[in-house]
Amino acid sequence: GFAVGRSTDGGVIAQIRLYRTRNGGATWQFVSEPGVDTKIHFTTSLHGWAMDQNTQFPILESRDGGVTFIPREDITTEGTALPLKSQLGKGIGQVEFSDLFFVDDQVGWIYISRKQNLFFSSRMLRTEDGGATWQEIYETNNGAHREIYFLDRRNGYLFDEFGRIE
Questions:
Q1: CB-based contacts of 137: which residues, under 8 Å, 6+ apart?
Q2: pTM score, two decimals?
């Protein structure tokens, strides 16, 4: 299993630290600091994902149990396409990766929030091939959602910043 935590030194909050257990949690070993502040999610003992809300940093992928994370600059706020950096500075407002969730090693979602002035829009990307490609499946102008959770490949929930569920 995996666990994440943060250390604080003199009130400064550090980046997420990744730990791993191979004995049901009796002992934990430090694995790495992926350099993100939001989310780490493993789909198998070797394959995992990490994200940061700031879109200047791409979604990261690990295929070695979290020892290293590789930037997936091909995953953009529009799906799998042009490098992420080409999407910045085009008048799209403040964009952030809000959440990442997988139900198994093949199917997962990335939720993206966009704020421009006082208006919010959001979109969701989905993969069905373990993250090799991502397609937009949902877009709304009904506010900013913060988290997603799926029960299975077809049924899920959106949670907004006030705790409301859709």
A1: 109, 124, 125, 126
A2: 0.78
The whole-angstrom separation of Cα 98 and Cα 42 is: 17
Q: Which residues contact 166 (CB under 8 A, 6 or more apart)?
A: 145, 157, 158, 159, 160
Q: Which two tokens stand for residue 113?
A: 């929030």
Asked if residues 112 and 100 have their Cβ atoms less than 8 Å apart, the reply is no
Alpha-carbon span 72 to 53, nearest angstrom: 14
- Give SS3 for 114: strand
Report in angstroms the alpha-carbon separations of 100 from 36, 55, 89, 155: 13, 13, 24, 15
pLDDT in tens, 1-56: 999 887 766 666 667 889 999 999 999 999 998 888 778 899 999 999 998 766 56
Task: State the burial class of residue 71 (Cβ atoms within 10 Å of its Cβ: 0-12, 13-18, 19+).
Answer: middle
Where does residue 119 fall: left (phi above 0), alpha (psi -120 to 50 degrees), or beta otherwise?
A: beta
